[in-house]
Structure formats: C-alpha cells, structure tokens
Amino acid sequence: MDIEKLKGIEKKWQKKWKEAGIFEADVDKNKEKFFLAHAYPYPSGPTHHGHARAYLFDDAIARYKRMKGFNVLYPMGWHCTGNPAMIKAEKIRNGDEDTIEKLKEAGVPEEEVKKLKDPHKYVRFFATESDLSYKSCLETVGCSIDWRREFMTIDETYKKFIQWQYSRLKELGYVQQKEYPVIWCPEQEMPLGDNDVEDESQGAESEEYIAYKFRIEIDNEKILLPAATLRPETIYGVTNMFLNPNLDYVIAKLGNEKWLLSHDAYEKVKYQREDVSFVKEFSSEDIIGSYCENPVTEKDVIILPADFVKGSSATGVVMSVPAHAPYDHIAIEELRKQKDVLKKYGIGMEELDFDYISLIDLEGYGKYPAVEVAEEMDIKELDEERLEEATKEVYRKEFHQGTLKENTAYPGKRVDKIKKKVKEDMLARGLAEIYYDTSKPVLCKCGASGVIKLVDDQWFLKYSDREWKNKSLDLLERVKVIPKKYRKELNYYLDEWMGDKPCARKKTLGTELPFDKNWMVEPLSDSTIYMAYYTISKTINQENIDGEKLDSSVFDYIFWGKGNPENCKVKTGVLEDMRKEFLYWYPLDMRIAGTEHLSNHLSFMIFHHAALFNEVEWPKGVTIHGMVLDENGNKVSASKGNGYNMKEIAKGGMVDAMRLGMYAKSSPWDDIKFGKKEVDKTIENVSSRFQKLFKYVDLIDEASKETRDVLDRWILSKMQRHIKNTEDALDKLELMEAVNHAFYSAFNDIKDYVNKKENLNHDVFKDVIRTWIRILAPFTPHLCEELWEKTGGDGFVSEAEWPKVEEELIDETAEKGKELGDTIEEDVREIKDITGLDKPKEIKIIVSDDWKRDMKTAVQKNKELSELMKKNKFRKQGNSAVRYFQELKKEHEKERVISGKEELKALGEMKGHFEKLFQADVIIEKESESKEDKAVKSRPEKPAIVLKN
RNA sequence: GCGGGGAUACCCGAGUGGUCAAAGGGGCUAGGUUCAGGGCCUAGUGGUUUAGUACCUUCGUCGGUUCGAAUCCGACUCCCCGCACCA
To answer: How far apart are the first and last CA of chain A?
Structure first.
C-alpha cells in the first residue's frame, strides 16, 4: 500500500458512509442516546481550517461515543439571521470594490460574486452552496453529521418556532418593553453598532449623566443651568460654575422649564426628549460674573469664564468641585492669574477667594485630594492629558474608598454604595434630570455625528429578574462544564453581569416578534433553544411541513405535551413522532461553543432553558473550544487570507493527517498556533507515520506464527493500556491526551516491537494492529476505514465496537521484562562510551540474587535492619546486606519486585535481540554463580553488566 | 475599571506535593541506512561527573508552608481573553 493511494480516500468513504446512512440518528429505545450540538455557524464568509478545528472536536467525540454503543445525534444548522451578511450583500449591490475583491481572492468565482448581492443568496452560498461554505468544510473533513436535520434560521418553520418561544416568554413576563438609550445616526435614522462607526469612535458607549438644575434669573425669568456630571454626590462641593464665553449657547424650552445649553447639547437633547423647543440664542458673557443657585445646598455660586468647556461634551454647563476634581482646581488657579479676564467680566479677586469644599473622606489624603494629586503629579496648567489621568486617579480612589462627610445628606456612607441612591433622590426631588451623551465623540461611517437617542418602545429580555437568574444558576449547577475553569466565569455572567437585554431590532434578517410586528427578533436572541429544534427538524424536512401549520399549539404539544393533538394543523401521527423524538433526544448532553460565547449564547441557552423547560430537559454539558491562530498569533480568518480551505488539503488526501495534527496540538479548549506553514509541516510529519502504518499492515500477511515471548506479551499488554488511556482521556474530552496515547505512544511501541522482534507473531501482530485501527478511528476515520477493510474488518470501523480492555492480557512481568531490556541496552551503550570498548566480543549480564529482592520487598514494607538481620539469608551476606539495606532506604519506589526467575526468563527471550544489536556474544548468568567481580553490583531489575574484548 | 485565565528548557507545549532534569512534538548535533538530496532508523540535547553512578542548578520575581514544591500559600511583575444588544 502506498501513501499515494490516500488521494481520494476521503471522498470514497464519505460516499460510502452517506449511502449507508450510518450517521443518521433515529429514535431507538434500546440504545442510550447521546446528543451533542455545536454552536451553529453564521455563514458570513468563506471557511478555512480554523473553522474545521472547532467542529473536529465534536466529530471525534461523536465518533467515539458511537463506537461505545451510544445512539449519537450530531446535527447541524445555519444561523442566517443577522446583519453582517446583509451588509456584505448591500456592499456588493453598491459595487464596493474592497468587498468584491476580497471575495474573489478567497476563491469566489467572478460570476458568482454578483449573485451575492441578495442577502439570502449570500447566506446560502456560504452556508451550503459552494466549496467555500461551512457545509462543504464540514463534509470535507468528514464530520459525522446527520444532515437530514439541517435547517436555516430564516426558514419559515424555524421562524414559527421562534415566535412560539417569544410568545411564551412574554406570557411568563420575561419580555418587556421599556425606554432605552442607543447610539444613533441622525442621518440614516438607525442605531450604530461598532461596525458602523469610524475606527476612532469604536468602543463609544452611552453614558448617563445627571444634570443638576442650577437656578439663575435673567430678565426676570427663571432660567436653569443644567450642570452635567457623572458624580452626583459632588453637588455638595460646588464652589462655582464654568461657562465658555466663546461658545454658542441657546435658551431652550424643555417642558415647562427654560434651560441654558450649548448649541450642540440642544441639538442632542432633542433626541432624548420630545418636548424641546428653541427660544433664543444666548451669549454666556451676559451672565459670567453673576451668581446662580445650587439647587441642593441652595447656596449661590459665581459663574466663571472657562475656555476649556466644550460644547460637544455633555451640556456645556460645568459645575466646579475643586476639592475633588483636579481639572476644576487647576482651572481656578489659572484664572486667578488672568487679571485682565477677571476685569473684563467685573470679577473681583476677593470673589475668587472662596474656600474649597471638602465632602469626601479619603484615607491617606487630606481635605483636598484633587489638590494633592495635582501637586504630586506636578500639574501646573491646563494640560488636558495629564489632568485626565489625575481625574481618573482621584475618581477611582474616591469611588472605591471614599466616604461622604457631614456636610452631605449621606454622612458616613461609602461613595460606591450610595452613588446610585444620591442620583435617585435628586431625580425624585426634581432637582436634576438624566442627560445622556456618548463616552467619546461618535463619527458614523456616513459622516454624520452620532447622538444618543432614547428609544421608548424597545423590547427587552428581563435577564435582571432575580427569580429567573436563580433558576438559571440552579441549572448551571447541574451542568458539567468542561473545562472546569469556565464555570466561575459563567456563574459570574449569570449571577451578576447580565442585565436586561434588548431582544429586538427594527432592521435585520430574521423573525418578527409575534406580538409587535414593528420589531424583529435580534439575531442572538433567536439562538437560545434551537437544540430542541434539531429533534424535530428531521420530521419537518421529511414531511415537508409548511411553516403555516406550525402555530404555537403545535410546539406546546411537542415540547410541553400540552393541548390536544387533534386540534393541531399537523397530522396527529406526525405530531406524535415529533413529540417522541423530542422526549427521546432531550436533554442536550453536550453543547460546544467558543469562549467568546460564554457571556451570550451559552448564558442565553441557560436562561431560556430554565424558563421554558422542565428540569429533566435542562442541558447537561457545556464545553468550550479554542480557536486557531497563525504563526504570528493572529486569529485565522477569511479576511486575512491566512487559512487553508479544506478542499485544498483534501486534494492531497491529507485530511486525516491534518485532523490528527490538530488534535495533538493542544487541548480542544486551548487556542493553537497552527498557521499554514505549520499545517504543511504537520501533514508531512504525520503522513510519514501513516506510511509506516501501511507498511505494518502489509507485514501482517508475512508474519509467522510463534509462541508468545516476552515482547509479544509486552505489546499486547501495552495495547490494553493504550485502549484504557485513550478511553479515559476521551471521557474527559482530552483529545490531545487521547491522541498521544492512541497514536504517538502506540506508534512508538509498535515500532519498537517490530524493530526488536526477529520474527513477528502473526496472531499477536494482527490483533495489535486491529486494536490500533479502532482506537484511532475517532481521529482519522477515513484512513482507518481503509485499513479496517484491508485487515478484514466487518462493516465500517465507524460502526465497530470500541475495543474492550482484556484484563488478562495486561502482563506486568512482561512489561518489566521489556523495560529491563531497554535499560540493558542503554547501560551497555553507556559503558561502551565510557570505557571505549567499542566492539566488545562478549557481554555478560549478571542477574542479582534473590536475597536482594527479598530485602527490597522487606524495605518497601518498612522493616527494620535489626529485624531483617535475624534471618539467615541476610545475615550470611554480612556487610553487603547492611550496605544494601542503607541504599534501599533512600528509595521511594513501591513497585512490585519481579523474581530472579522471571528476570532470567525475560532476558533469555531477548538474548537474540541483544546479540543482533550489539554484534557480540551475550551470556546471562546468576550473581551467585558468576565469577565476575562486578557481579555484586547487580540489583533487582538492574543486572550487572560486564563487557569483554 | 469589572470578571476570567496564564507565565515551564532553543521554540511549541504536557505536568497540580515525592516515581521530575521535567511527557510529546519541532529544531539542532552525532551516527547509521553505504553512492546526491530527502525520507527513514538510532542516540544525544542544563552543568559537572562515573564502567552503566552521584551531585549541583533550573519551571516569571521575591518570600513562606513542608522531611520534601514546577506543583500549596502570600506579595509582586508581565501577558492573554470577555465586557453585550454584535455574530
């Protein structure tokens, strides 16, 4: 057999598997089921070997479980709802060259690219309909999927399933409508995600300011100065107000109140409230130098000029708290020096002579932390960057460690604990309003400036609901999380981090909310319990059930057993079948997803299962897979072009080599560095071993029959251990460990066996090879099918029974004997090195006497010297016995000691091998019968060795 | 900032109290397979040392617990990942 024959091997077996339908899973009450579901892929672009790795994890497990006798359900669907495909399609429609070029580079034929302007075509192309698609990728690498259950999330039938889910969640009170601030493009009138804004704007968030309404009278009219801050508690420390004399301000009517705002702020606030109208332009210079009233303390504070106040940030009205804000402190210091400015506004020096008001106690600082930090950092002027740093420092410390003083309404309270309450109190008293702004300026890719818009009819999933959270935590507690380290993180997300989540969007590919046709279900929110859909999608596909027939009563019956099947539009028998499938396959045994999905898909799955299903139907396992990085540590991705399309690898017939390499690289949940170069190298390396494997298989026929010697017994014993170790590793999902045992260790042993054995034992060798093929089958299925067939296996190896460990073949003595042989080889080599006796004519191996073995066993049992020396067999050895005793005391080994007879036998059986290896006569003798001086040096399992010329 | 994870020899990467100078792979070195190369095989790959031995130093840094630590505890330094309405 030649490695060349590997070409085409994948296709050959994939075709046979398909024809035989061996991965199609149906209800079988006589078999235990195993249901695993990988996160269904979002087909946004071409696939590569990075994708393959994630799914190969599942495949090995699915194949192993199948061989272990489980009825395995391994399905796949396509998550087509969402925006990226829509946006890409739109770009193609608009002739965006970059997008088109990238697709061509990735291998999309020119004439196809044009067709992808339709988002539905786009997702189909990358889901199933091309060599670049996910389906092609999964099929090419040999994933053992039941394709009859395939579906897309834009199928009418699936949409009905989603609508059922959302109706029921709403009935449970878990879906609610409320106000919500979004970053908004005023030009396009749509919310802006990070993908929609220029790079420098990415990461911008909506920030909730509290605007304190300072009061002033202008022309006998009460005007409010809304000073916006993120630190509501500092209202007690305000010494003055800052307005920018060079900025455009307006007076605007908000409800019944008149506010003074920067022009920019006025434009923004219109998106946050409906009752906003323009009154007039206003020059801040008219009131700089006058006083306004702090709404909380009711004290008057002076309005000072400040160039640094920006119109684009918050309201353009700034309250100054110099004791706790370095910026304010430095601004006042600066102003004190600017006599001409003060004079211009008629501000007397004495008016700047106010004391700072300290309101927060902070350990390690005096009354004015802001002043101290500014001094420490040696900030003397309005150096924006460094003041920003200082501000953060003060803010952080005061927030986490500070306590409010007597001059506030919250004396003794920790800032971090009371902040929220201060805000609520002030809002309740009508002294302040919420004002939203972006954390940094947002520039939309269309060129417009983003603003915060308050959407008032957004639908939310109420993940903040304590009862729901508790139920979900209860579910999590029963879930087996692999690897364990992610449980903590998951627990944190569920318990603390997750809040209400908007679950609907205006514009997206997907499903309408059943109770509000203005909204579509947001793409993450339709991927929560789809594993349940796999249990029925087979029937839906086969019976060609129309979406229209799937109203909520159908799902009520299938998933809850509620209602009367007679009243459903689906035929009763079919409905019963679906119900049976669901009951049989659920719960999900293993859910696989990437780490980035912990805080969304996986958490959502837990929440939604907790809400909608009985405890017995709750998912039982969550497993994380890692991703593939290239040699520079970058994620392998279609846009970077640093990945292989699987078809390229399949051409050489090397899919299995790549599979094995991937498994061996690291644990499935860890990231692996596996760039193109490394893929090439790995394939080269593994395939050379495959070559050897073929050679071994060919050897079987030439092998002769013999009685089983120590090497035969050893290799059989080792194979039992390899079975066991592989099995144990696979049960823990430790694929790397499993491959290390099943492939590398077994390979090394078999190689060793073949090298050392003079005449192969036909029976033994065949048995070994056939065991080997089976434990390798989950990893390299195509290759193993080929070899299985060649070695006369029945049917498919994919369906073969996982080899059972035959306890009676585990032979410790043979293992020890073989080890002994290895040690002797090593020792002889070493002695030759040291002595320079390069080609000894004779090698004497002197096996230690039995009293040494007895003493070793005795010492292992913690016997004392005095006790032992009472025995004749030790006493007659005299001093040698005492010295040996002391030597043994230093050892920690607790392994069984083999007898001198066993040792002699094993060595005898390997004598021929030694003679061949060293090209010398080998003499084996007992210590007591040897005339060599060195004989006394022999130890149990460590014979003395004498080389002679 | 919040939460989670990590630091192991030239490189990648196992290893959670003694059996650890530390798996496996790669690289490198030497020898062999006898004609070029590759492939394959064998051995070596912290240091000193020896008829097959023993000792010393080492697993981010500094301390601690222990008869004994890469492994446990504390502090520190550095790195990675997630922070949502987006798949």
So the answer is: 45
pLDDT at A703: 61
Distance, Å, A779 CA → B46 C1': 37
Separation between the CA of A381 and the C1’ of B69 (whole angstroms):
54
- Residue with token string 């060259």: A97
Nucleotide nearest to A684 (CA to C1'): B39
Q: How many CA atoms lie within 13 A of A654 on its CB side?
A: 23
> A408: how many CB neighbours lie within 10 A of its CB?
21
Give the C-alpha distances (Å, rounded to integers) separating A467 from A3, A423, A462, A612, A926.
61, 27, 10, 14, 78
- Cβ-proximal residues to A174 (8 Å cutoff; 6+ apart), any chain: A461, A462, A465, A468, A611
Q: What is the rounded distance in angstroms from the CA atom of residue A570 to the CA atom of residue A148?
A: 20
Candidate from A66-75, A265-274, A935-944 with smallest mean pLDDT = A935-944
pLDDT value, residue A1? 44
pLDDT at residue A610, as a whole number: 96
- Residues A615, A944: Cα–Cα separation, whole Å: 67
Residue at the smallest CA–C1' distance to nucleotide B24: A740
For A73, phi then psi, to 5°, come to -105, 115
Residues 686-705 of A with CB under 7 A from strand B: 688, 692
Backbone angles phi, psi at A183, to 5 degrees: -80, 130
Q: Please enumerate in sequence order all residues whose Cβ is within 8 A of that of A597, keeping only pairs 6 or more positions apart, or say none.
A: A39
Asked whether A312 and A248 are in contact (CB, 8 A), the reply is no
pLDDT higher than threshold 80 for residue A50: yes
A449 is near strand B: CB distance < 7 Å: no
pLDDT at position A642: 82
Is residue A937's beta carbon less than 7 angstroms from any atom in nucleic acid strand B?
yes
Of residues A677 and A502, which shows the higher confidence score? A502
Residues 6+ apart with CB under 8 A from A101: none
Give the C-alpha separation, A729 to A736, whole Å: 8
Q: Which of A748, A746, A730 is nearest to A738 (CA)?
A: A730
| pLDDT of the residue at A892 | 60
**Confidence class for position A409, pLDDT limits 50, 70, 90:** confident
Length A938 CA → B33 C1' (Å): 36
List C-alpha distances in Å: A927 to A168, A850, A930: 84, 9, 5
A729 touches strand B (CB under 7 A): no
Residues 404-433 of A with CB under 7 A from strand B: none
Range A62-90 average pLDDT: 92
CA of A701: how far to CAs of A693, A695, A761, A763, A765, in Å? Answer: 14, 11, 10, 10, 10
Give the span between the Cα atoms of A35 and A276, in whole angstroms: 57
Residue (of A457, A458, A461) closest to A165 by Cα position: A461
The pLDDT tens digits of the residues spanning A145-203 come to: 999 999 999 999 999 999 999 999 999 999 999 888 888 888 777 777 776 777 777 77
Please tell me whether any atom of strand B lies within 7 Å of the Cβ of A871: no
Q: Residue A297: exposed, middle, or buried by beta-carbon count in 10 A (0-12, 13-18, 19+)? A: middle
The Å distance, CA of A363 to C1' of B63, is 28
Q: How far apart are CA A533 and CA A547, in angstroms?
A: 13
Give DSSP secondary structure letters for A85-121.
HHHHHHHHHTT-HHHHHHHHHTT--HHHHHHTTSHHH
* Residues A412-438: tens digit of each pLDDT: 888 877 888 888 889 899 899 988 888
Distance A917 CA to B33 C1' (A): 15
Q: How confident is the model at residue A301 (pLDDT cuts 50, 70, 90)?
A: very high
Chain B positions with an atom below 7 A of a protein C-beta are: 1-6, 12-14, 18-19, 23-26, 39-44, 50-53, 81-87
Question: What pLDDT is recorded for position A540?
Answer: 96
| pLDDT (0 to 100) of residue A32 | 97
